[in-house]
Design goal:
heterotrimer, A mainly alpha, B mainly alpha, C alpha+beta, B: mainly alpha, 4 helices, elongated, C: alpha+beta, Ubiquitin-like (UB roll), Fumarate Reductase Iron-sulfur Protein, Chain B, domain 2, 2 domains, 5-stranded mixed beta sheet, two-stranded antiparallel ribbon, 10 helices
Chain lengths: ~130, ~120, ~250
Amino acid sequence: MSRARVYRPTMRGWWERHPAYRRYLLREGSSVLLGLYALWLLAGLLALAAGEAAYQGWRDLHGSPWLFGLHLAALLAAAYHAVTWFRLLPLTLPVLRWRGRRPTDRAVVRGAWVVSVALSGGVWLYLLGGVR
Amino acid sequence: MRRSHEPPLWLLFGAGGLLAALLAPALILLTGVVMPVAAEHGIEVLDYHASRELFARPVVGVPVALALGLVLCHAAHRIYHTLRDLGIPAGRGTWWVCYGGAGVAGLLGVGAVVALWW
Amino acid sequence: MSESQRITLAVQRFHPEQDAEPRWQRYAVPYTPDMSVLEGLQYIKDHLDGSLTFRWSCRMAICGSCGCMIDGEPELACHVFLRDYAPGPVWVSALDHFPVQRDLVIDQSDFLEKLETVHAYLIPAGERTAAEGTYRQTPEQMTDYYAYAQCINCLLCYAACPQYGWHPDFVGPGALALLQRYNLDSRDAGSELRHAVVDAEQGVWSCTLVGHCSEVCPKGVDPARAINQNKPGSSARYLLDWLRPGRRRQEGSE
């Protein structure tokens, strides 16, 4: 058989070919805002170590409309991250057994949300315990 | 076939992702929305003295700093790989900026907690 | 009999001896509600253009031959109906991420080579004689690997995987699902032999869980799960081998 020429397709613009690809990039992109928020909290921690004036300055900035808007965007990104993360969690777990039974995906996802709500509640109580 | 060296990076990415999934929405709501809105009504949430009490203890502060570092590792991993997914040539240099940045940030956080504690 | 409706099929044509690159060619195909897209292609070949080249066999979504892109979605042509694409045109092209040999025919040899590397067969713990009888497996044990055993090697998952598109040396969803099918079979004792593939850069670690592979699989195999449920174990092996130097290093690259 002779070696005929083949056509090799390009990957350029692959994300435009299907909504699933765009959703994937959105999911991956949520980490940018999450990373920015983590850096912002780190800035707060550094300001806290620097002294009262610096820390109060960090707190005061939260009142600005653009930072408030950025936090709302980060909140949406965090929610999208959490929803997709818990949905995919059962796929990244090895085969688990408890008393010979395997947990369903729904059980894993529900369990994750229960832990999230419980931990979040605990963190809120801990942090708001310092409300004056 | 070459053995992959992804596993330790994936574990960091996974830990940071799990922490973010569990706590980020609640935290962003607290510091980004509740804190400024409460301040407008005269209620001070996470003021200087309260925050010092909460985070100056290494048993709290260090895990918090490490958690921030892990979330940054998660972001670094996703950003690095997504750049490559988009066809942008991200090589060793980008790799070090991403993961190195996350590592440095985590260390800075731990440093801040140690400074607070002292 | 009344005039049947017509639908336009826009089909990707590529004959390397005369075409520099693929082009679209439109055909008006009369159709009835029971006709699959494959039957539309067969009508074209039988009545309109005998030079149209495509693979097909069983016509019932079990042989895996007729995979192609239909309106940008990897599908088995026999598995979808022309009526669902009305009024058309129905865009039919070769599966994404594979070299196109001719019209809708892609070069599958990469996948077939990958399949040979994953030890996709039962590797028993030891010799077994007929006197010992057959293997015994409970229905529950079978559910562990049943989904992965449904793979018909249709390659739709490869067409849905951007990582395979970027990195053709990625073993890929189908082959890794078949690897996992044997790893999880209670009669198999060969998972260690398959570690080299799993732990490789081109193994599970090329996967970023886009997840589209599982969405397009016509048999519900869920290759995304097959791949990603190996990541914790692979990570554990990496850490353990790092703590016990010398154990894995000899094996090195294969």
